[in-house]
Structures are given as structure tokens and as C-alpha cells.
Amino acid sequence: MSFLYFLEHLSVAFGAIAGVLAGRGKRVDLFGILVLGMVTATGGGTLRDLILDVPVFWLKDPNFVYTVVVASCLMFVTARYRKTPLKLLIFADAAGLAFVAIVGTSKTLSLGHAGIICIVMGVTSGVAGGIIRDVLCSEFPSIFRIDFYWYATAAFCGACCYLTLHLVQGPNPVNLIVSSALILILRLAALRYRWRLPEFRTHEDTHTVSEDKLPPVA
Predict the structure, then answer these.
(1) I want to staple 154 with a disulfide (CB 3.0 to 4.6 A). Which of 9, 81, 127, 186 is the partner?
(2) Quick check: pTM over 0.90?
(3) pLDDT score for 198
(4) Residue 11 and residue 204: Cα distance in Å, rounded?
């Protein structure tokens, strides 16, 4: 078993855990939890494989489905009997992002695509599952909110790191470890210190004065 294959199973497991925990307070049953776990864990990889026109990874290897089911059920049972801190959701989501993004970058590179395509597919792999999860939970996708702090940005930095290491020393499991760790650290640090990109504001948003703040008419 290659390290990349192991890393992909880790990404699926953490994605499933994040999907299950996102269902807290939504009053969903076990089936709903399995759906949330499945789409969060496999959504990004599925979109990646469809775009790259290769067999979808979990259809080709059903072991990934078993990983999702086991991780989701374990989290479902654990959450019913133990308090699940918000930090667990944050870490699971960050770890899932890190592993999925690097797996996506590595797989795209192995197919001979240009570096920029590898970065795009890495970021897409990392964020797509969370977008689908948020839509199913009737929430505005988290990655588009300014208070979500370096989600896609962390994946972008990790994908660039992986490509750089690959150019310097060629294929090496260390590349996967270092670039995944970079994404995880950047994501958690961004949450801790509230790093975010500049907010989009138009000229009108910046300079328009609301009517209730206008001086009274004499």
C-alpha cells in the first residue's frame, strides 16, 4: 500500500467526521448523517476525477466507501454519548482539507498536467466537499465568507509547496507530509489569528452614506 493511498483514506475519514459534526443541531437521522459524511468526504475527489476524465476513485475502489461508513458511524455513536467540542470539528475539517488538497494536486501531477492545473485541481478537491455539505445543510458556503479565514488560501499554499518540492527533489513521500502539514498549520493559524483576504467592496459600498446618517434638512 502506497503512502498516497493511505493519505487518501485519511482524507476520506477526516472528511466524513467533519461532515457528521456539521450535522449537529440539524435534526438529521443516521441516513442523513451518512449522506453528509459521504458528500463531504468524497465530493471534492469525485469532482476532480470527473473533470480529469478518470475513473472516480471510490467507484474504482469501494474500500473508500467502507472508510466513510465506519468513520461516520463511529462519530455518530460517539457524539450521542460524549460532548463533541467545536475544536474537533475545526481540526477534522482542516485535516480533511489538507489531505484532500494534496492528494488532488499529486494525482493531477501524475497525469502530466501543467503546474497551474495541478494547483487548481488541488484547491478544488479540497473545498468542493465542504461546499456541497453546506448547501445540503441550507447554509451559505463557508469558503465564500470573510470570517472563514484562509480555507482555499491554505489549500493553494499547500499545493504550491507540493509542486515546489516535487521540482526540487522529485517524487517523495516527504513532499506529501510537508505540504499537508503546511495546509493544516496555515488553516489553524488563520483561525487562531483571524487571517483573511481583503473583502470585496465596490466604490459605492465604501463611499455611500446611508440616508439615516445624512444631516437633517433645514
Answers:
(1) 186
(2) no
(3) 84
(4) 43
